[in-house]
Amino acid sequence: MIEVVVMIIAILGCILAILQRDLLKVAILTGINGACVAFLFQFLLAPDVALTQAIVGTAIVPVFLAMAIYKTQRMDDK
């Protein structure tokens, strides 16, 4: 039952990331999605894959996205 709740949270995180206009929020939602997937791997008894997913999907990818967003120039709608 808990895995269904985590899957729903992961799907909602993906949908919210698609609908966001602020790119930093997208980076945060990507990290939440990575944490949900890491939890699912741990629940499915794949601790090595879960650890890799937790490091890459929860920490590295959102940080790289945030750094790329920070380095680029924003074009605001006026």
Describe what you observe in this structure.
This is MrpA C-terminal/MbhD domain-containing protein. Keywords: Cell membrane, Membrane, Transmembrane, Transmembrane helix. It comes from Candidatus Methanobinarius endosymbioticus. It is found in: Cell membrane. The protein has 3 helices and no strands. It has 78 residues and is mainly alpha-helical. The longest helix has 25 residues, at 47-71. Helices cover 82% and strands 0% of the residues. The protein has one domain.
What would you call the structural class?
Answer: mainly alpha
- Tally of separate domains: 1
Oligomer: single chain
Shape: flat
* Average of the residue pLDDT scores: 90
The number of strands is: 0
Helix coverage percent: over 70%
Topology:
Blueprint: H1 2-19, H2 23-43, H3 47-71
Helix pairs in contact: 1-2, 2-3
What keywords describe this structure?
single chain, mainly alpha, 3 helices, flat, membrane, MrpA C-terminal/MbhD domain-containing protein
Question: What is this structure, in a nutshell?
Answer:
By secondary structure, this protein is an all-alpha fold. About 80% of the residues lie in helices and about 0% in strands.
